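Quick one before lunch.
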Amino acid sequence: MQYEHVLIRYGELALKKRNRKDFENQLIRNIKKALYAYSKVQVVRAYGRLYLELHGEPYGEIEAKLRKVFGIHSFSPTRFIQSFDIETIKEAALAVIRDVEPFPKTFKVVVKRPNKQFPYLSGEMNREIGAYVLRNTNNLTVDVHQPEVELRVEIRVEGVFISCDTIPGMGGLPTGSSGKAMLMLSGGIDSPVAGWMTMKRGVRIEGVHFHSYPFTSEQAKQKVIDLARILTQYSGGMKLHIVPFTEIQTKIRETCREDYTITIMRRFMMRITERLAQQHGALAIATGESLGQVASQTMESMYTINHVIDTPVLRPVVAMDKEEIMQIARKIETYETSILPFEDCCTIFVPKSPVTRPKLELAEKFERELDVERLVENAVNGVESLWIDPVASEEGHSFF
Ligand code: ATP
Ligand code: MG
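Model of the magnesium ion complex:
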C-alpha cells in the first residue's frame, strides 16, 4: 500500500508544558528541514501530535529521514480517511493489516476516540473492527496481551487514522531548542559521538577543527568535513570552522619543554574555541574528552587545560567506556569514517613521553615564552568557515 500520511508522536515534549509551543515549532522546522528534498510533503499540527501529508512523495525515503530527527518519540505510516462511515473504516482497517509483511498470527485492535462526536464508543468499535478483520482473513487470532501487531485506529475530528507499524524515533529534544555549543571536532571516534549526544539534548552545534597543514594532509581535513556532514543528517546544515594551527604547534615545539607540548597545545585549542564561541554566540564548548583512555586524559590534565577559559565545557562521553562510544559511533554512522588512517594534528607532534599529570604552574611558566595573545589572534583571524550541507554540493566531496 502506498501510505499517504505519517503520524508523529513526540513524548518528551509533552512533559515540558511551558516551553511546549517553542519545542513544537522547533520540531516542525527540523522535520521540514530534514524533508527539504520532498517539497510536496506538508506538516500538519494536531493537538499533541503532528502528521505529514505525503502527496505522493516516497514513504520509504521519508522514513529513513524521520528516524534521524531528534525529538520524535515514534511515528507510523498511516492510512487516513475522511469518512466517519463505519463500513468504510472497517474496510480501511482490514486493508492496513493485510498489508503487514510477514503476515502476523495474532493482533489486537486499539481504538482511540478523541472525536467525541463520533457515535460509537471505543469498545464497540474495537469489537466491530476486530470481528470484521477476523471474518476476512485466515490464520489470524486475537491476542490482547502480546499481539504481534496492534491495529491502531484513531478517530479524530479531522478524520480517521489507521496504522499497524510503529517506528521508534531518535528521542531527545529538537535540535535548536537548547541554544548553541562549539564542538571541538577531531578526526577521531569520540568527538563526533560527543557532538551527536550534545545535539540530542537539543543543542545546535558548530564544529571547530584544528588543522596543521602541511604537517597534516588535505585528506585529514576532508575526513573532518565528512564527519561533520554525517552529523548534519541529524541536525540539518552546520558551520565548520577550520583553524590554522601550524604556527602555534611549531612555536610550541621550538619553545616549550617537550613533555608539556600536548598540554600547551590543548590550552591553545581551548582559548581559540572560546573566542569562536563568543564570535558566534555559543554559550558552551563540547569535546570528546574522556577520563583515563590515554595518558593525557587525566583529571590533572583536564584541570590544567580547562583553566584557560571560563566557558562551560560539555563532555558527554566522559562517563562512557570506549566500547559504548564505539557502539554509538556505529549506530550514527561516523565510525567507518573515524577509523580512516589520516593523521590528526595531535598525533603528529606527540612527544616521546607526554606528562600524565601536568602542573598548572609549569604549563603557565612554559607558556610565558610564547606571545600567547598574538598567536591566538592570528589563528582566529585565519579561520576558514565552511557551511556543511547534508548533501555534498561540490564536486569531489565524498558522500556516504
Ligand atoms: P577523539 O576520538 O575525538 O579524537 P580522543 O580520545 O582521541 O578523542 P584526544 O585526542 O585526547 O581524545 O582529544 C580530546 C578532545 O579534544 C577530542 O575529543 C576533541 O574534542 C578535541 N580535539 C582533539 N584534537 C582536535 C583537533 N585537531 N581539532 C579539534 N578538536 C580536537
Ligand atoms: Mg583524537
